[in-house]
Every structure is written in C-alpha cells, then in structure tokens.
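[step 3/7] inverse_fold.run input=structure_tokens len=443
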C-alpha cells in the first residue's frame, strides 16, 4: 500500500511536517507561466528597483508539500531575481524529500544551503532568523495565526495560503498581524487565488458595473471528489497522524467548508463588496466518509447566508467519490445571470471574457514581487480574514443546526488549536452533532 492515496486532485495539499529531538514542541504563540503571463511579468518589473539593496529577492518556504512546492515555483517564475534560500518542514524525512523535489523543480533558483534547511515543529522560528525577504506560508491552516504573527514580527513580506485560521480567535490574531504588517510596510498576499484570475476579475467588474442589474441571489457549488490520505509510518505518534493527515481534523483544517470551499465563499463575499453576511443557517454531515481515518470532519454541507439587504447565497459543497461534480458561481440579478468561473453573462446585456488567461497562482506572486520591487506594499488582510470567518460561520451553522450571527461569531472565544503542540498524544476526535452541539452556548 502506498503512503499516500488519492482519488481526485486536491485543491490545496500544503505539507506540514520525522521526529526531531531538539525541535519537538511548538508553543501556541511561538513558533506555469504562459507566454502571455511572461509578457505581463516583464511589463511589471523595473530591475533598477532593488529589494533591500539587492537585485535578489530571497524567499523562504514553510511547508514544502504539493501546494508549497507549487507556490515556490510560481514565486520563482514571477521574478527571475527570486531565489529560494531557506526551507522548513516538520519532519526530517519530509524535509529531505522536499529538498530533492525543489532542486529538480526550481533549477538554478534553488539556493538553499544545508544550514538553512530546518525540520521540527519550531522550524519556522529558525527559518525566520535567516536573511530572507519573503516567506511563503503553506502549512495546515491551524498553524497559520502563529506563523503569521512570527513572520510579521520578523519583518518579512508574506504569501499565506488560504484559509488563514480555523476559529474566530485565530482570525482575530491574523487581523491584528495584518494591521501590524501594514504599519511595517510589509506586503501580505493571500492564496485566495481567484481574486487574481484575469477572467474572474473582469467578470466581477461587469457584475459590479450593473450588467446583470441588481443582485438577487448567488448559488455557490463546489461539488468534488475525495482527497488524499497518508498511511502511518512506524515512528508516528497520534499527533503525527493528525498533522500528516491534517485535512480530516478540524483543529488543523477547519473542515473542508473552510479549507476548500472558502474559494467559493470568498467570491460571494467579493460579490457583496466584501461586506459580510449578517447570519447563516444550514446542514451537513458524514454520509460516506465515516471511518476513523477521516477524523472529525463532515463530507457535505449546505448553508444559506443572508445579508442585511436581503440577498442570499445558497452554498453547497461535498467531497464524495463517484458523484456529479461541479464548481461554479451562479449570480442572479434583475437583468441577467452570470457564471463567474465561465466568465460569462446572459440576459439583457450578454458578455463573455475573451482575454488572456495566465495562471492565477502565478499572478498572485507577480503581484507580490511587484509590490516589493516598487516599494508599494500590498495587503490582502481584510478580505482573507472576512472570507475565512464566513466559512467558519457556515461550518458552525451546520455543526449546530442553529442560526449563527456574524456579530456573535466575530467576537467569539472559540479556539480549536491546542495550547501546546508536540509529538505524542493528539486532541480528542469528536464529530459534532446538530441538536446536541451548540455554538451559541460557547459564546
């Protein structure tokens, strides 16, 4: 049996990561370009603008799995002056594998010396002590708030994958870190990649300009297959198992409504000019993925979000094999309908995007490197925090069967991440049951 099983591509599989006796504990508060895309990049960069006195932008990678390696490649492609000079993983074996893979992937832009390759739960602390200019944060979301705080404190520009937290306490920590980044003049770019897709941006501009009239409702579908599972190794403790299979534990992933469906919910937030909904209610459960290896997350959700103006988003997501799959944003207005990912509008004012379509993952890093080169900090903190909280709102509505109000959620004391994270025992696994679990009683 292989060590990692897949039945459909993951939307995001960032790595976290063999035991390191000197780095076994993490305190909670420590711690491909197309030719068109290449043309866009060359127009963005003025090579006489230097990063901290050098033409080289030094990049550190925290979490070098599939998503992390992809982010590193996109960063290098976005600016030929980038070099990967430091890498961090949580275990020795994952670090060794990552370094070999990154050497093959990045070629001459891989420049990580042995003394700047770190493993352990505190590996990020060591990486941030190096002379990197930018850090790519692509570990499981449960680690994101502490990693964000540490990166801002160290004065590094940041690319952070979505989502940015798994609970309201974590979201508020990232909000504060984002404001601190602004004060320091640091760039912060989010992995909510559709915000950088040229076709999606153009479609949103058409909607916001009134092409479909007044907004009535939104249907968000993210109906997908199942994702990977990593088989245990001899040295794994219960905590290793949870960290390596982080998708299936809500303290690490936030559940798939937060980890994956956030892409769709973020577009709904964007459609509402980043004004959050006032309440949500919904349902969900575990119908197919019921075995212990799937931890404590659900395999399907259906949530209704309501805004102060009366508009609603009907949000459906599932991760099940052998089912109908669809990912699309259907936007209904008084004069027409838009399909955001299809980049088209029908109705009184038909329209279809016909422009260039470079990789949105690449364009995120073009924007980040451009902001650094030009000394014009870019900060995506506001919407990445709001969209993460919107996803948590839907999760809690389905878990509890209650109406969840934004004002209650944003101030909630809910915190899912353990105070200490160390190899050994892991948090208890408990699947939330509507009617018996109550979010509102945690306030």
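[step 3/7] decode complete -> sequence:
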């Amino acid at each position: 049996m292989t060590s990692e099983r897949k039945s459909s591509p993951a939307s995001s599989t960032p790595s976290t990561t063999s035991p390191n006796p000197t780095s076994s504990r993490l305190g909670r508060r420590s711690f491909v370009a197309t030719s068109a895309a290449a043309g866009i990049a060359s127009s963005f960069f003025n090579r006489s603008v230097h990063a901290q006195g050098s033409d080289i932008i030094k990049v550190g990678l925290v979490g070098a799995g599939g998503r992390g390696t992809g982010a590193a490649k996109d960063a290098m492609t976005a600016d030929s002056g980038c070099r990967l000079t430091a890498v961090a993983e949580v275990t020795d074996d994952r670090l060794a594998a990552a370094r070999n893979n990154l050497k093959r992937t990045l070629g001459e832009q891989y420049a990580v010396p042995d003394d700047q390759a770190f493993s352990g739960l505190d590996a990020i602390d060591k990486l941030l002590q190096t002379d990197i200019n930018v850090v790519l944060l692509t570990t499981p979301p449960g680690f994101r708030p502490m990693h964000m705080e540490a990166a801002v404190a160290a004065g590094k520009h940041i690319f952070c994958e979505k989502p940015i937290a798994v609970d309201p306490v974590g979201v508020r920590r990232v909000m504060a870190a984002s404001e601190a980044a602004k004060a320091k003049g640091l760039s912060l770019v989010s992995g909510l990649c559709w915000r950088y897709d040229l076709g999606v941006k153009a479609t949103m501009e058409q909607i916001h300009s009134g092409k479909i009239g007044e907004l009535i409702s939104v249907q968000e579908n993210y109906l997908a297959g199942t994702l990977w599972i990593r088989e245990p190794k001899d040295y794994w403790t219960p905590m290793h198992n949870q960290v390596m299979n982080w998708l299936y534990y809500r303290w690490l992933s936030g559940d798939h409504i937060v980890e994956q469906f956030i892409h769709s919910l973020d577009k709904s937030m964007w459609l509402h000019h980043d004004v959050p909904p006032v309440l949500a209610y919904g349902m969900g459960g575990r119908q197919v993925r019921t075995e212990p290896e799937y931890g404590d997350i659900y395999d399907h959700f259906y949530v209704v979000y309501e805004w102060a103006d009366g508009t609603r988003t009907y949000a459906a997501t599932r991760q099940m094999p052998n089912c109908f799959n669809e990912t699309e944003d259907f936007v209904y207005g008084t004069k027409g309908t838009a399909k955001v990912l299809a980049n088209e509008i029908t109705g009184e004012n038909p329209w279809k995007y016909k422009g260039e379509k470079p990789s949105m993952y690449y364009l995120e890093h073009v924007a980040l490197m451009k902001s650094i080169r030009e000394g014009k900090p870019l900060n995506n903190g506001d919407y990445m925090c709001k969209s993460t909280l919107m996803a948590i709102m839907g999760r809690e509505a389905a878990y509890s069967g209650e109406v969840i109000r934004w004002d209650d959620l944003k101030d909630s004391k809910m915190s899912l991440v353990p105070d200490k994270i160390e190899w050994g025992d892991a948090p208890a696994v408990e699947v939330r049951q509507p009617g018996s679990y109550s979010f509102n009683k945690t306030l």
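[step 4/7] annotate
Confidence is low (pLDDT under 50) at residues 1-53.
The chain is about 35% helix and 20% strand.
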